[in-house]
Amino acid sequence: MTAGDPSGSVVRRILLGSQLRRLRESRGITREAAGYSIRASESKISRLELGRVSFKARDVEDLLTLYGVSDEAERGALLSLVKEANVAGWWHSYSDVLPGWFQTYVGLEGAASAIRGYEAQFVHGLLQTEAYAHAVVERGMRGASHEDVERRVALRLARQKVLVAERAPEVRFVLDEAALRRVHGGPEVMRGQLDHLVEAAQMPHITLQVVPFGHGWHAGESGTFTLLSFPESDLPDVVFLEQLTSALYLDKAEDVAQYEKAMQRLQEECPSPEESLRLLERISAEFAQ
Predict the structure, then answer these.
(1) Which of 91, 108, 228, 285 is least enclosed by beta carbons within 10 angstroms?
(2) Which comes out higher in pLDDT, residue 14 or 172?
(3) Could you give the domains of the chain?
């Protein structure tokens, strides 16, 4: 990941925010006091420390002074992150159709070294065909203009470039059979989508497993989730939970551990990748009848 990598800018924003939080807490300074020092609210400090907003060099300089960081090398290292953290991502041009709460996810997804998760209702966006994506977006954005639908689909396809990047992440998804049988766009679209999954599963860094209807209760019953891991040792894994109008980003060790266990149990309990591949092929053949 290079300094100018726009996906990495999200990671650097989170890293900078977490370092500022650790410095503040080590000095026993409240968020309210920190906010006062930079002419901002307590909630603004919270958003900065979570890496949800961009940084101003002047604000970071004032916070470092408040926290007693006087060593020039340490200040310089942190201030250098400000410029890198503020690099606009490629997805910025889609801001008119991209919800603000999802922009963080797109950046994290592009910077991740591993992407794992369970999908209950849809094929994951990284593995959707254009026709399937169009059907899903069109249904989900009823009333939206044709242009907005096309731009949302284009964004989804642009995200998929990460799968063929030089340092493509390790991808492992467990798909509920319901996500494969729920028809979007008609039988022909579904067959194309399932065939695409079969092809994707042949790639060495992509592993797919399917939870069949006959399996009964399983560790993913609580719903869809995505686990993101990063090459930076000081950045924790993040769990992404998408909701109707917002999302949750969980990074507390105890929360992430629960989802790690759920993912592990799903992998162990459902059919192997080889068996799942055969199931994908059978379902695809059914749509051809």
Answers:
(1) 285
(2) 172
(3) 6-85 (1.10.260.40), 99-127+162-287 (3.30.870.10)
